[in-house]
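Ops channel
N.P.: pipeline sanity check, posting one input/output pair.
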């Protein structure tokens, strides 16, 4: 699907509809208007221009199947009305952000057609922690720029699972921001493996320098300021609000100078700056996540057409499928690409069925 209708095709399509686009950081594309409404309005206008009938506030109850059970025959509305169709595309999203309509009702429809649903889980979701300094909101609202956030496995021995670099923010419940969201799926999967045990994460506040180079740089800096209280020098290296936490973990008094620094405490401080530990006990709910992980099993879907392998005339696209990507345009690209495949092939199927 991505090969047949990829990101460049999507760009060309929207430009052909008159939307002027611009490229921002990391190749992300936005309308020049900076308004998502521009995209929505243009798509809705195109739907009307093509003569598509739109029925609002008429929720679907279930799928309708042909008498022989071999193909889909339409949908049944909650009102009891039957809408017959030669092909049906399920494009209802997952369970995340339910106020947009993605309440998870499509999974039952898929199961009624013989599909299996892989385990659903929140992804691209803020992370929660019971660390005392999180509970006491010591760093709430503090943003960290260009740090490296890592997820670790504790069993059978500590092993690096994933590292993402970028921005993050401390909240009253844990951590959020782009880097935390990108790490969230690895946290969720690790907790699944360990029956919900807390997951260790570390924050590298100075990811540009290796531990060895960072130790040399810090030693040089603090020697030149050896008479000053360490807290005053340290705030030139890291955000001032995080200094008390670093010193507390390292068991160093704020008034200590470099000349009177115990060797072990100094080493602990360096290690903590390069790997500030935070135990993560979970995430916000799947409804509060940006993306739903899991969904309709991809083994049961034809990847070229997005047609069900279990039921003729039934197609799927978007987040209801067991696909998920990072935030930043990947999920909407997947939705457009699979939607294009499902739409074009469903149309061909319906035409061939009647010819």
């Amino acid at each position: 699907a991505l090969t047949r209708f990829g990101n460049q095709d999507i760009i060309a399509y929207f430009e052909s509809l008159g939307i002027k686009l611009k490229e921002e950081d990391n190749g992300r594309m936005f309308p020049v208007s900076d308004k998502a409404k521009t995209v929505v309005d243009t798509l809705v206008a195109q739907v009307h221009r093509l003569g598509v009938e739109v029925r609002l506030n008429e929720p679907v109850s279930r799928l309708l199947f042909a008498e022989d059970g071999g193909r889909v025959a339409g949908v049944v509305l909650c009102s009891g009305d039957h809408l017959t169709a030669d092909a049906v595309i399920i494009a209802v999203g997952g369970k995340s952000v339910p106020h947009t309509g993605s309440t998870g009702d499509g999974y039952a429809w898929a199961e009624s057609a013989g599909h299996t649903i892989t385990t659903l889980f929140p992804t691209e979701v803020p992370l929660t922690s019971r660390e005392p300094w999180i509970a006491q909101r010591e760093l709430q609202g503090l943003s960290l720029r260009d740090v490296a956030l890592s997820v670790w496995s504790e069993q059978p021995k500590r092993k690096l699972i994933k590292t993402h670099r970028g921005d993050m923010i401390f909240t009253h419940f844990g951590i959020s921001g782009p880097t935390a969201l990108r790490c969230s799926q690895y946290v969720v999967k690790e907790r699944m493996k360990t029956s919900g045990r807390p997951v260790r994460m570390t924050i590298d506040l100075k990811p540009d320098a290796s531990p060895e180079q960072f130790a040399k740089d810090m030693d040089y800096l603090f020697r030149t300021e050896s008479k000053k209280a360490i807290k005053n020098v340290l705030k030139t290296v890291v955000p001032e609000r995080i200094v008390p936490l670093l010193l507390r973990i390292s068991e160093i008094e704020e008034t200590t100078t470099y000349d009177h620094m115990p060797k072990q405490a100094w080493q602990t401080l360096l290690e903590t700056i390069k790997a500030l530990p935070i135990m993560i006990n979970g995430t916000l709910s799947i409804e509060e996540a940006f993306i739903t992980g899991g969904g309709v099993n991809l083994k049961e879907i034809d990847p070229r057409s997005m047609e069900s392998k279990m039921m003729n005339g039934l197609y799927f696209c978007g987040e209801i499928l067991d696909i998920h990507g990072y935030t930043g345009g990947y999920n909407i690209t997947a939705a457009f690409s699979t939607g294009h495949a499902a739409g074009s092939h469903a149309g061909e199927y319906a035409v061939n069925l009647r010819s």
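N.P.: looks fine end to end. The radius of gyration is 26 Å.
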